[in-house]
Amino acid sequence: MKILLRHPLRVTGRLIWFGGEVLLAVSDFLIHCAFQPEKSRLAARAAWLQRASRRSLRILKLQAQVAGPVPGGGLLVCNHLSYLDIPVLASLAPAVFVAKRNIRSWPVIGWLTSLAGTLFVDRGRRTEVGQTNEEIRQTLEAGVLVILFPEGTSSDGQTVLPFKSSLLEPATQKNHPLSVALIQYQLDEGDVREDVCYWRDMTFFPHLLNLLGLRTVRASVRLAPFQPDASDRKELAKRLHAEVLRMKDAGARQTP
Fold it and tell me: Does the pLDDT value for residue 2 go beyond 90?
């Protein structure tokens, strides 16, 4: 909360701005998504999320530096640092995200992610994981990009946590493109691990207020296509994890 205390006017102004963006997003949803036929509903929601994300990132003066081809479809797996990952990645391409079920109960954010068509899952319930895999498959068949965070939780970005394989079953069928991404953040002031990353036992609303107090946030996203050369999802998870780690190490070597 130290940044909130140092910049209360900035936080207040941006919080009001954020409220306005929420109202604008709801209006946009009603106009472009609410009455879409079922066959085009997923694509319409993904496009809506992209528009809303691009507007919301302006609050933080955030622009993502992107390296590599942004996929237009298929499955994209990425490391996970913060709830901020969702608007950053969504701003690059229309997409449907896979997220933990408890996010649905978050104030405002949970409601907005539900409107976006997010596929919620409780990884602890095997029957629900199977249902989510089927929903992923159907979304891929509809030609919409699906973004998955296979670490299963967020971290401080010092490393990439092992990838869980339970939701990678559709990728083993090799019917759709597969891509990997590495997302990272930089700040001119503050500590990325505490002020941007959302992990450990952090509480959402105080973290959001602190985030709104930052002067600006820089994000970098590295993307690359990946050849799914493993038909076993556990082996695929290991290879995807190794590729994201390789991207992280390569980026660290390039940083002066």
Answer: no
Helix intervals (H) in the chain: 2-6, 8-32, 38-57, 85-90, 109-115, 126-141, 169-172, 192-195, 204-212, 233-254
Q: What pLDDT sits at residue 5? A: 74
pLDDT tens-digit map of 126-154: 788 999 999 999 999 999 999 999 999 99
Quote the pLDDT of residue 124: 72
Q: Where are the domains of the chain?
A: 2-254
Confidence of residue 57 (pLDDT cuts 50, 70, 90): very high
In the CATH scheme, what is the code of domain 2-254? 3.40.1130
Chain position carrying tokens 């996203």: 221
Secondary structure (H, E, C), 191-249: CHHHHCCCCCCCCHHHHHHHHHCCCCCEEEEEEEECCCCCCCHHHHHHHHHHHHHHHHH
d(CA 7, CA 19): 18
Looking at residue 60, the DSSP 8-state letter turns out to be G
